[in-house]
Amino acid sequence: MINVADMQLTTGLFVFFLVLDRTFCQSGVSKSDLGILYKAFVSELSYFEREVDRLDSDAVLGLRIADAYTRRILEDAERGKIKLKSDVYKNVTDILNRVTFILGKILLRVQANDPFFYPALNSQWTYYKPYQFRQQVDVAEKQTLSPDEEERFPVCVREIVGSRNRKACAISHDCKETMMTKGASNTALYYQAMYFVLGEISGCLSTITSTLRISKKDLSDHLQEICAASYHSVMWLNFRESGDPDGLMMILRLSFSCGLLGYHEILEDRGLSNAVWWQLRSGCYGDYTRVGEAKKQDDVAASKKELKSYLGDGCFSDVTGVGLGLLAVYLRWVLDPPPQVQPLDLLIGAHEDAQTVSLYMYALLVLTFALTIVARKHIMEMLTTFYVILFGQKRRR
Which pTM value belongs to this model? Predict the structure, then answer.
């Protein structure tokens, strides 16, 4: 018989193991606990408020997506499509109010400094695509593009957004061919996806679809190819885990652009933890190796684009806009998750997973060892009994 002390030790270890199991199984974000994601929002919006006079239209892109997504979440909650607890509803409302306030201030600057983009950014967006699964498609091999060819991608995005200034949508032959390029680089993939996102926001979706149909090309198939290639790129960049700041910023860009198109699989794995933990201490997004570095206007080694986008202290205006927009995409992903995705355990990254597994296995070994000590007498009795049964019977024969 196991004595009382043995029973107490066994029971205590079992309770410890059960509590450990429940603790790690319940870790992460839930619909009633969005503290970490909310904190990331507040931190970035505070950065926007401090730097409102230096941010450009790239940053306003993130604000417009945050505005559209928070409004839609609250509308769906009011219609009963999704259920939010009162504190979560309040937090989402607070985010929307701050976004609205910042937009009111920053749009005045955009109107003066970037009148080309201003018409597209001056009105509310309702862009909110349904979730869709990424189909298994053949991903074209990456092409080597010249600098001039690479530069055409952002130029074409600017062209389609500028359609808001005109009565007709501007889709040049060169941009149509550029945006239908297969096997583009990761940077070009981002601009390809955003071309079609911003094209729809600018009211050019029907024109784009008709233009492609004339060339016997299907937009939905092309978007599948873009986001399948983006998905594989993100998985590869995550797998490398090199900590390369350019790779980290590329993961944010590709996750944001294809997340906007509804391809939710690119948001899974460690995506939400990345979006939260890669935020720099000031609240912006950019290159963590340059934190504390001031912007140098006379740095001849820097490109003209970087001089325009780099804000100092590691922050880039365009990546900061992407970061805010991606937080909004994840807010929807948590509160109104796609099929087969549970709104739990979303903030555990690979490092935390490894620690969890290691501690879990260690506890299991400790429990096994302890139970072995507790039951050692009984184990010896069982071994002796088996020995007698097996070898004793042989002697009697």
Answer: 0.76
